[in-house]
Amino acid sequence: MSSRIFTLLLFSICSAFSSRVLVTFAHDFDSHINSIKPFFLKLVERGHNVTVLDTSSNPKPRYFGPDVHVLPIYLPPKGPKPAHDSFWIVDTASHHLPPLFAATDRVLGDIIEEHKEKLDTVLNTTWDLIIMDEVFGLHQNAISYKLKKEKNVPYIVFSTTITWMSNYINNAMGRFSSSRIGMFVPLPKDSNNFWNPSNFMHRISQFIADFREYFGICYMLSFNGDLDNLKRIASDDFTFSKFTKQSAFHLNEQIDRLPFAVPEAADFKSIGAHCRTPNALSRKYLNFMNDLSSKGTIYVGFGSTIDITFAPEFLWKAFEDTFRNLSDYRIIFAYGGERKMDVGKNVMITKWAPQLEILYHNATMLFISHAGLKRPAKTSRDRSVISIFQKYGTGRSSAHRPNDQTLLACSTV
């Protein structure tokens, strides 16, 4: 989605003068705010006053530049932190979503009890607009709903990857199980095992998964008292259906037409893709990638959420052996973990890499990543091939797309 179009939508809500904008995002999670960041930075550039509500278990607040105000709420984890290796070994399903929502309601309870002054500051400030992440933070729903109801503050719901199927169903948003791959399909057995909408068993299994998500989120959460803290701030009449219908816009950043056709709802419009022009690569990367003895470049990166340090030992060793065996290729590995990898001089390990610029370079032949829902979008824009290493969560959806339609090579862990 073009940031110019997004900003135009915001300006239709904000006043013609400098507006006060509140940005909220998933609790203790970097990936989604990094997707929203370009848009609120554009607002700052246009003279608007942006405040980011940062709820985190990290005592150090996030920094988005000198012109973005950050209101930090530090919430130390209670009990043992989830193991990092869970991203590599835990098999998720749609019925795991309601407990995640319930956990964020408990986080909201901690905010109410331990940071009431900061919460009151947010609720008593005069905002012109709220931009909120769709998932994993019921504090966002509570704040947006209350300010809309009491002060008529408009809010925009921003889905940074894919909207929950329960949201599509509950609000007649023009999507249904038989026309799309869900997030929790079974792991593919091989590269030919992709989701097929003409297969009845695929359709019925997807319907069952989507129904479990819908019933759990829209009914069981409230029945079990797992929305009690949300309703303390919002009101007892809160429902997810009403919340979505009251939003000024519901924006979604994903490639939903690849590879299957989808129906259109009257108020559900596709804006189209926006591919940013890459900057020039620094000499450090150019010298490495343009080596005349190299057959090409392989870029490896797992994003901001997945840490390969905690991958199963066999997978770590497989990467080491593969990198050593591919000595005729230059490999750039974006990795900031503490574990040292035993590889040759053909491998550049860097804490951060200019991903877009590397993928646009003519020498880049392969992109190896974790198959998160945002990865196929980035890869198709950047003209490279992606190899999927499967794990916890949403990546199985990407792994089930046909190779000839999405240029994805699948490898499951």
UniProtKB/TrEMBL annotation:
UniProt keyword annotations, A-Z: Glycosyltransferase, Signal, Transferase
Domain of life the protein comes from: Eukaryota
Presence of the UniProt keyword Glycosyltransferase in the record: yes
Reactions this protein catalyses: glucuronate acceptor + UDP-alpha-D-glucuronate = acceptor beta-D-glucuronoside + UDP + H(+)
Single annotated GO MF: glucuronosyltransferase activity
Span of the signal peptide: 1-18
Broad EC category: transferase
EC number of this enzyme: 2.4.1.17
Family: Belongs to the UDP-glycosyltransferase family.
PANTHER family referenced in this protein's UniProt entry, alphabetically: EG:EG0003.4 PROTEIN-RELATED, FI06409P-RELATED
Protein name: glucuronosyltransferase
Species, as recorded: Steinernema carpocapsae (Entomopathogenic nematode)
